[in-house]
Amino acid sequence: MDDVRDGVIGVWRVGWSGRLMGYVLAGVPACGALSAWLGVLSQPDAQSADSAGIATAFAVALGFFAWWGLLRTRLELTTDMIVMVNPWGTQRLPWSRVSAVGLGNWGAQFHTTDGFMYSAYALSDLAGGTRHDERFAEVRRAVDAQLHSGQPL
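^ thats the sequence. predicted structure below, dont judge the formating
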């Protein structure tokens, strides 16, 4: 593969519709909180300030949820390992442990030589509501090239 830069073969994130949903989940409540604070400026009283504080807390919570679940999620293929950043944690899988890759409902599934399976949520059906067969084909080509080369790319 000729596209390797600084040891990174490729990075895949949640599909565009999932990222859009993440930005909307973060942005709309933030605009509501901003509007509430503008209301405090025009009518400075305790009730307006309380409402603005609650709106801000809600916006921060949804923004964190959107970032954690959709915007931070990614799959990185490097010459040394596979890095899967999922909402529930980050897994680092050396190439020497990978035996196969497939596509399941929870994303790209990396099967290991010891029988375990690791999923990369960035290519999940559930993240964007659509299948990511074309994006998975890119991942599969990169993985097959790495596995069949027997050496770093």
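The longest strand covers residues 98-104.
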